[in-house]
Amino acid sequence: MTNEQIKQLEKELWEAADQLRANSKLTAAEYKDPVLGLILLRFAQNRYEEAKVQVEASIPEGPRGKRAATKEDFTAAGAIMLPEASKYDYLANLPESKDIAEAINEGMRQIEVEYPDLAGILPKNYQDFETDLARIVRM
Predict the structure, then answer these.
(1) Which of 4, 81, 87, 98 could form a disulfide with 74 if both were Cys (CB 3.0 to 4.6 A apart)?
(2) What number is the average pLDDT over the span 88-116?
């Protein structure tokens, strides 16, 4: 990243933090978990997309073509196979008529179903944010 990109990212993160402070019932100590949850979703999707290329290239051609990639293929590549409703881009592009807080909570629940080791760890309190959560997610 260039210095300019880092400064722009820093600016956007501070703006998001300001929005959270102004539009959340949560204290600064409490909103870190939901924010880190969103960062996790973004990172997990980026890692998934990177691993997808590697995984698809590593599946051997069989008599009926290539088999579909599995959760185990992605785990071996150091990524998690995200359900569609758990992908950051899916959530960021939801129509404004959808309840984004419930969609994020559901995305987190779906990850926990697929990866039981994460059960009870992922934040699911996005309903505590005011309606500006959608704008923050789309930043």
Answers:
(1) 81
(2) 91
